[in-house]
Amino acid sequence: MDVKTLLLQQWASCLDEEDWFPPLEKVLEDITVEQAIWKPADGAMNSIWELVCHLLFYEKRFLMRFLGETANEPQAENNESTFRLPTETLENWKETKQEYFYVHRELGKILAKSEHEDLYRKIPGEDNSLVLELKSLAMHDAYHIGQIVFLSKMQGAWPGKRSF
Questions:
Q1: pLDDT over 70, % of the chain
Q2: What is the Cα–Cα distance from 15 to 25, expressed in whole angstroms?
Q3: Rounded Cα gap, residues 59 and 74, in angstroms
Q4: What does residue 22 show for φ and ψ, rounded to 5 degrees?
Q5: What's this model's pTM, rounded to 2 decimal places?
Q6: What is the DSSP letter of 79?
């Protein structure tokens, strides 16, 4: 199996293909706004929505840099500010999810269309090549998907019976 095929598989498993962990699209499917903004009483964890905003920030920033649209890339003072929520409405929750799904899919399309030499070309504004950045983003997604599942379970929002 080549690197591109392996990475495409990893990328898909973070969004919509079941693997060793549930894909984010399925995890978020029935999460309400109330569940999305919920935090444990001690406040030590980010909410589900904050985690999705954080994932979206880094994927969107990378997409904009890859496309050479740095003027449109999201900005943050520091990592902590990447968790910032828009106004907490149902519409904004839906928009956040849809934008994340769109950006993730766009990056997947870029990967799928890339030739071997494109995979290893350094991306302006990034430290690494397309293949290394997407590998890191996939691992980052998997890590935070685990947190989102845990938060869902803490709220009793995780269905007792799932296919994964």
A1: 97
A2: 5
A3: 10
A4: -70, 145
A5: 0.94
A6: G
